[in-house]
Amino acid sequence: MSNNHIYLRYLDMKDAGSLLDLKLRNRDFFQPFEPIRDDSHFTLEGQKSEIANGIQGVANDESYTFGIFLKETDELVGRIALTGIARGPFQNAYLGYFMDEKHNGKGYATGAVSLCVEYAFNEIGLHRVQAGVMPKNVPSIRVLEKAGFRHEGLSKKYLKINGSWEDHELFAITAE
């Protein structure tokens, strides 16, 4: 999946070093928006385990995890995932993503969200994709709005982020 500047592909074991570099380089930048992670997460083995879980998720139709790569250089600049896939009458997934701080504001996250949603609807047959964003994460809210997501409400104390239970604005997009 690609557009003019980026492409998405499943992460595989050869990406573990690049994923680790990305997370270490952005650790302080990401922390206000993520759960507190054990130091073992920030190791090559930790990233290999995360990639292995992603591969298993695809095999079980439970999740789909992609790296976001620059077309020009093949540099890994982010990750995007469809998780918690529910089939049956729901046909829903949760969307989560992160982008290297030095590549923010260039439209790559919006492009990745659009490509991932297109994949969700056209390739794996989902009807709905939803995302939760802390109200203070205005850039991420803008990404979702630009990608066509609608605001659906506020969930109080939704996720434990950076050690605190945080409210999240809920956004969704459906195949229609």
Automatic annotation (TrEMBL):
Any one cellular-component term (Gene Ontology): cytoplasm
GO function terms (MF aspect): protein-N-terminal-alanine acetyltransferase activity
InterPro entries: Acyl_CoA_acyltransferase, GNAT_dom, N-acetyltransferase
Domain of life: Bacteria
Gene3D superfamilies: 3.40.630.30
Keyword list, A-Z: Acyltransferase, Transferase
Descriptive protein name: N-acetyltransferase
Record's signal peptide: none
Family according to the record: Belongs to the acetyltransferase family. RimJ subfamily.
N-acetyltransferase domain: residues covered: 6-176
Pfam families, A to Z: Acetyltransf_3
